[in-house]
Amino acid sequence: MALRQSNGAPSVEQQPRYLAEASRRVQEQGFYAKKACGARDLPGALRHSSDMLRELRTSLLTPRNYYELYMKVCDELRHLDQFFQQLVADGTPAADIYERAQACGDVLPRLYLLITAGAVYVKTMQAPAKDILHDLVEMAKGVQHPMRGLFLRHYLAQACKDALPDTGSKYEGDGGDVSHAVDFILRNFGETNRLWVRMQNQGPASQKKRREEERKQLKILVGTNLVRLSQLEGVDESRYASDVLPPLLEQVVNCRDAIAQPYLLDCIINVFPDEFHLATLDSFLTCCTQLRDKVCVRSILEAMMRRLANGARQEDSEVLGPPGAFDAFDACASRLVEEKKEALKVADLIQLRAALLEFAVECYPGELEYVQRCLNQTSAAITSDVVGDDALELETLLLAPVSSQQMTLSALLSLDDVAPLCRRLPLEQRKNVARRALRRVLDGDDALDSPESVVKLCAILEPLLCGDDSSMTDEVLEKEQTSVASLAHLCRSESTDDVFRVLGTLRRALGKGGSRRTAYTLPALAYRGLALARVAKGPEFSARKVFQFVHETATALAGVAPARALRVFLAAALEADAQCLGAISYEFVSQAFILYEDELPDSKAQVKALRSMVGTLLAAENCDAADYDALAAKATQYAAKLFRKPDQCRMVAACSHLFWPPQRVEAVEAPPPPADDDATAEEDAPPPAPTPKKEGRKRDPKRVLECLQRSLKTADACMTSAQPPISLFVEILDHYLAHLEAGNPLITPKYIAGLVALITEHVETMEAGAARDAVERHYANTRALIKARGVIELD
Description:
This protein has 795 residues and is mainly alpha-helical. Helix content is 68%, strand content 0%. It is elongated and about 130 Å long. The protein starts with 14 loop residues before the first helix and ends in a 6-residue tail after the last helix.
């Protein structure tokens, strides 16, 4: 039966059988060894333990299975260690046991037994620890088979980890000092690493990837030495810089192995304290520049920067980067780029700068010069547009500053290379960067207070502001442009003139977006302009100038979204009316009426717009009487020409209120309080009533009645339909009641009584169903109001 494959590698199919047989023999010999220990038979215990240890000489097992067998052997050796300690406690010299262990004929079992006995020898303090440790680490060189020697060295490190002459330990003094402990670990580490690296060259080239995977599985056996080294109490910052790190880095550089170098440096980063790293950062980074070209130096630098960043984090989550650390990392990166420019791809270079930039953004939030330096170096290295992996890496680099919560808007806009680098990206990646930047700006609520800031921001957001939008659905476009439109509300400054300039600059940028985009962005600009008009008192731009800006914006909007433009015109009319600018208010309303006539053919849109127009006219208290009458008459004409008769009925009735508008009453200032002598006499007097200042818009009761009667006539005409709209009569009754309460002399209770009788008759003839229930509820509420006000007597 073949125990190996034809290429010399262990047979994978036979692994379970090999492991089972070896485990059985280990268990068997371990049983006899424990039996000999119980009988206090030292020769027998050594003999059976040696037979057990011979199973570790096998070359048939893969590293994973060999590790499993090794752990079973270590479990058995613990019993032998306890037996040795018991013998020494009973008076047997540890030197005798140490010498007897050397009598074993085979090298590998003899060394395992020597290590076990030597550890007991040191722990019993019958010999200086430094001598025994030196003896063991030298004798372990007798096994040069890579995998067997690697496990033997690991056993040596584990067996002696508590027997080192560290500072403060009981073995210090005659047994040595911390320098001997450091020397023992470093020598064992060096041999362990050499054996681990040699595994790469054992076997045919066709099995290279398999050996690499096996080596990665065994890397913990090497790293264990560094963990124990970091746990020595006597290793302080000074000793680490002079005696520990230099030989470690020398070992890393000299091994010239693409697997060992990054792993060992990662171990150094993680096991030693931050203070040690800061004191020796230059030496560490110099080592990074001497690694093989296949080693990903960026990941090593990232790990170190992340470790230092986490160490610099304060209790309040504030991060304060170590002084000088960024300059050291930057110098290392620049040296790598210079020395390995031929081996570095564009993606590698971008990744390297991205790691450095993230470190600068997180740890040095106030040092924009660091961020700008990274961006400058990246921009200089990229001379053309990037695609694929290069584009993804550049996107990652740009996302670091634009999405950082510690980066203010002014700081972001001061980075001149962000926009040019964005233009190197494909469209989709540019949009990703722009969306993150927009979200960051809106979340931060920083003010856009100058035209220059708007220009710089729009350069970053350019993919969202203009370009082809044909592939975007209406829902996606609306969500995106709604966010863009929110920029208008960030236009703030103590000077209203500055705000006006910023709005103008923003409108020019948003105006390039095309009809689909401006339909969402221009309304926000217009409403922000109206808010500015309310407070505009600048020496250059008055409220009239701002209203002109709003007029131009609404006019541009009218070509792409007439319904929205109409609402903007009406809102502007009310704002101008509130400032007693009658001519400007009339102009805005006139433009709304023109839009209604020319751009709103849809019946539903006309009804909605007409309601807004009627409401605006009623709220415009300062409108000129002649202008108001003309506009009211025009609105009533529009209502009478609506396509659907129910709409005509409702809107004509609503227009009746235009001819009986609320009268404006302006209160004069209250007289001064009475003197003390008159206080008692007048303390019970009622407060003075407001005195009308001037007469408001004219009322025309006749036109009101005409509208209501025309509305009734239209409602009556609708009764010939299949489902007569009885609800129209109830709505008209509500309008009659409103005018009766408003004091219209021509609206008398007899009209109310006639409508009540008519509605009662029609309701009784309606078929049962949801429509009748709705009409009856509405009618019942109206009757309750009539009864409460005592308008007429109800049955």
